[in-house]
Structures are given as C-alpha cells and as structure tokens.
Design a protein that fits this description.
The protein has helices at about 5-15, 15-35, 40-50, 60-65, 85-95, 100-105, 120-130, 140-145, 150-165, 175-185. The chain is mostly helical. The chain is built from ten helices and no strands.
C-alpha cells in the first residue's frame, strides 16, 4: 500500500482525534529517528500503524489473539493493551509489513519490555510525547527523549506505573520488566 492508501485505511479505522494523534506520533517518531540516525521509513510505518487496531471490536481482537496464540496473560489485563499485538498482526496481514523491527515496535508500544530495540523505544516515546499530548511531565519526557532514549524510557515507565497504581489498575508484567531494565541501567551508570 502507498501512503495515501494507508492514511485512508487509518481514517476508516479510527475517530478523527485518534487520526490526528497518529500523525503527531509519526511526526515525533521521524524527529527522533533523525536524531538517533535510524531508518525514517521504519519509524514512519510503525508510527502510522501503531493504533490501527485500537477501535476494533473486543470479540474480534480476542479471536485474533487466540487464533494467533498471542500471550494469554493479555486476557487478564486491561483490553487497552490488546490493540498493540493485534495491530502488529494487521500490519503484517493487511498492510504487508514483513520487517520484524517494525512489527516489534507496534507490538510493544503499550507495555514496553526489557529487550527494546531503538525503534521500539522511539515509537513508545513518540506515542507518549507527541505534540497533542498534555499531562504533567510531558515537557520533561519530550526533552529527555532527545537526550537519552533510555533515560526517557525510565521516566515514561515510572510515570505510567505511578498513574496505574493511583488508579488501582493491574500492571502488565512486561511494563515492570521494562522499568526494572532501565532502572538497572541507570543504577549501573549506563544511562
């Protein structure tokens, strides 16, 4: 699919506000890709497709997750997490994305994990800090994103975990593992 076809598919799959968010994520991902000298096409594709499945029917997502043997732990956590791995599935099957680096970034953009690639971190942080986001700490997260992806990940994960704890929501294990990984890097002086 060319860019216009992808944009049209996105417009059909999500409300206008989410479409604007997606374009903001792409803008930020491209800025970060340039800054960290990684492939712009990978960053653009991952950003554009990251929320493709966000507004899918819950039962349809569940069916895909079962059929594709996705992590069964996902079923015991907030369904807000489901659109990431399901989105990676659609990136491959509907949009023809074969690049595992892009698919990984889409699949972990909601939870993070302890083995994140540069593109994984860029998409996670672009989603977290895109220009339409407004929350306490967003300006610091934006600044950190251009100073150190690892420091920015630690900051974003800390904020996310704190937010979920205050709402008394369960936290997916990959998020804790990601936090622990980046906290260890800082503790060991590597970030």
């Amino acid at each position: 699919m060319n860019r216009e076809e992808v944009l049209e598919a996105l417009r059909e799959a999500m409300p206008e506000k989410r479409f604007i968010h997606t374009l903001g994520v792409e803008k930020t991902a491209l800025e970060l890709a340039d800054h960290y000298k990684i492939d712009r096409d990978q960053a653009s594709t991952a950003a554009l497709l990251h929320d493709y499945a966000k507004y899918m029917n819950k039962e349809e997502m569940m069916g895909i997750m079962v059929e594709q043997k996705m992590d069964p732990k996902l079923f015991t956590y907030n369904q807000e997490l489901w659109h990431a791995p399901v989105g990676a599935f659609f990136a491959k099957t509907k949009f023809g994305v074969e690049d595992e680096v892009i698919l990984s970034a889409i699949a972990c953009h909601t939870t993070g994990n302890a083995a994140m690639s540069t593109l994984d971190k860029i998409l996670y942080l672009a989603d977290y800090t895109e220009p339409n986001r407004s929350f306490p700490g967003v300006y610091k997260a934006r600044r950190l994103s251009f100073d150190s992806l690892d420091n920015a990940m630690l900051f974003a994960l800390s904020n996310t975990i704190t937010f979920l704890v205050t709402k008394r929501q369960p936290i997916f294990p990959d998020t804790f593992e990601a936090y622990n990984y980046f906290a260890r890097l800082q503790f060991e002086g590597e970030v």
